[in-house]
Design a protein that fits this description.
The chain is mainly alpha-helical and 220 residues long. The chain has one domain (29-115, 124-215): Ferritin (Up-down Bundle). Helices cover 57% and strands 0% of the residues. It is built from 6 helices and no strands. The protein has helices spanning 21-28, 33-60, 66-92, 101-106, 131-156, 161-190. The radius of gyration is 20 Å and the shape is elongated. The mean pLDDT is 94. Bound molecules: fe (ii) ion (2 copies). One fe (ii) ion is lined by residues 47, 51, 79, 82, 145, 170, 174.
Length: 220
Amino acid sequence: MANDKPHATGTVAYGDVDRKVGIEVLRQQGINVEELVEKLIDNAAAEFASTYYYYSILRMYLAGHEDYKEICEDARLEDRQHYELILPRIYELGGSLPYSLHEFADRAGCPAAYLPGTDNGAHPPAEEPTAADILTVLLESERCAIRSWLEICQITAGKDPRTYDLASRILNEEIEHEAWFIELLAMERDGKVRPSGHFRRGFPGEAPYSRNRPFSHGGL
Ligand SMILES: [Fe+2]
Ligand SMILES: [Fe+2]
């Protein structure tokens, strides 16, 4: 039995509300908290702006491909969930969203998933983009997301269990998203079978790994 209670005090003074033990312990583990927060904001912006917003448009242009639309919708809503999941962690770590949505979108860590044929969103598509064109954009967006969240996992592994847990839950779904779009694109473009193991979510945007009800709005 511990009689000396070694964790009763530490580097943060008793009653101090300007510093957080939850941050100080990360510094003691060698985490550069400011740098980590900046990367989390970049990733949150990628989820919110590069994918969630632009996937809305991509999904509309999959008209006539109801199966693709449904799967694109799962990926779209799950990316919004990723934004919701990581947002509180940014503030816990002392960070903040930029106070301008424009600034937030501009700093996204992944390229915007523009609708093909729009010159990076400058105008409506000159001609109807094909399903293969759209699936290619979706696939490459998921690949950037995998790289981005893996970096967070690597920075935090063994040092920041909370951020690691959140990032790894997101990463699980990004890896699934890539596999879904490989399956669809391989058949649509090349007539090849590249199974993803996917059937369907229980409901649209289910986010089986990243859903965290206390962070989620409306339960869905
Ligand atoms: Fe995502
Ligand atoms: Fe994704």
